[in-house]
UniProtKB/TrEMBL annotation:
Residues 26-51 are annotated as: Disordered. Residues 73-320 form the Sugar phosphate transporter domain. The keyword Transmembrane helix applies. This is Sugar phosphate transporter domain-containing protein.
Length: 320
């Protein structure tokens, strides 16, 4: 599994940075088409229209090839998003079943991706972001939305079935519409609101019939919904102009993760002390689980969490 995850990480880096940038051939073709022609060469002047046609065809072909590469690149991000999300749900649930310490697990999951992105910055595979204290202050509310989204989901997943958490989280568009109206004063058409009613009814019906229903799981999932909606709303309001340098989608997610980790760590240690963590570890060992199993499922849940969110930022950044 570690080899598979390592290959997936390399695939993410290659897909992100290994393909040629769009319209390279197009720009090259354009410069050739506009190159000056000496007036002393009449034959070349006569042939120029034909050459222009040939170059136009070549440029069109280059545009089509570049467009295809960009489409494949975007599709790869969405495919990786789906696969990494599956891996996260599996290993997060395994880790929480073994050690029911959701605050500590959420903190670990935020931390695991930080060394990964630090290495990319250090070796030059990704340009490191350059930020001022004011930039960090600007991103702080968005990072808190990111933190609430994560901790709410982890607590909900630990309190009940994975399916139940995703049932409740399906109502996020409703929460987003309500908060957009309250905070931004943005209202949609009655038809749009009408399309949200089946979501409300479906979530309510599915929750009533869910055998693993718990109020903790429900409210934690709703916390995740509200935080995610606020994160999107705050991003629209505070990021109207660029924040810092080299702030690509991947770097934005990395910075939000680092801020969220720094905030969550003391809170997590207050709620789940080192003694609580040790007791959960000892209980898992006493139940027959091995230290290597506990370490692997915990670290893999963090790796999958970081990767699925990073490629989600990359995918949405290409379609928005």
């Amino acid at each position: 599994m570690a080899r598979v995850l390592g290959a997936a990480m390399m695939m993410t880096v290659v897909v992100s940075y290994g393909l040629p940038p769009p319209n390279v051939r197009s720009r090259s073709g354009s410069s050739l088409a506009k190159s000056p022609v000496s007036s002393s060469h009449k034959i070349q002047n006569k042939l120029q229209p034909r050459r222009g046609v040939a170059r136009a065809v070549a440029t069109t072909g280059g545009d089509e090839q570049s467009s295809l590469l960009e489409t494949l690149k975007t599709g790869s991000f969405f495919a990786l998003w789906y696969l990494f999300n599956i891996g996260y749900n599996i290993y997060n649930k395994k880790a929480l079943n073994a050690m029911p310490i959701p605050w500590s697990m959420a903190t670990l999951q935020l931390f695991v991706g930080i060394p990964y992105v630090m290495i990319l910055w250090l070796v030059g595979l990704r340009k490191a972001p350059k930020m001022s204290p004011d930039n960090v202050k600007t991103l702080f509310p968005i990072a808190m939305g990111h933190l609430g989204t994560h901790i709410g989901a982890v607590i909900s997943l630990g309190a009940g079935a994975v399916s139940f958490t995703h049932i409740v989280k399906a109502s996020e568009p409703v929460v987003s519409a309500v908060l957009s109206a309250l905070i931004l004063g943005a209202y949609y058409s009655p038809v749009t609101y009408a399309t949200l009613l089946p979501i409300v009814g479906g979530v309510a019906l599915a929750s009533l019939k869910e055998l693993s229903f718990t109020w903790l799981g429900f409210f934690a999932a709703m916390l995740s919904n509200v935080s995610s909606a606020l994160r999107g709303i705050l991003a629209k309001s505070v990021m109207k102009k660029p924040v810092g340098e080299n702030m690509t989608e991947a770097n934005l997610y990395a910075v939000l993760t680092i801020i969220a980790f720094c905030v969550l760590t003391p809170v997590s240690l207050f709620i789940e002390s080192p003694a609580t963590i040790k007791a959960a570890w000892d209980s898992a060992i006493a139940s027959g689980l091995t230290p290597s199993y506990l370490a692997s499922v915990s670290l893999l849940s963090g790796a999958y969490y970081y990767l699925y969110n990073e490629v989600a930022f990359l995918a949405l950044g290409r379609v928005n």
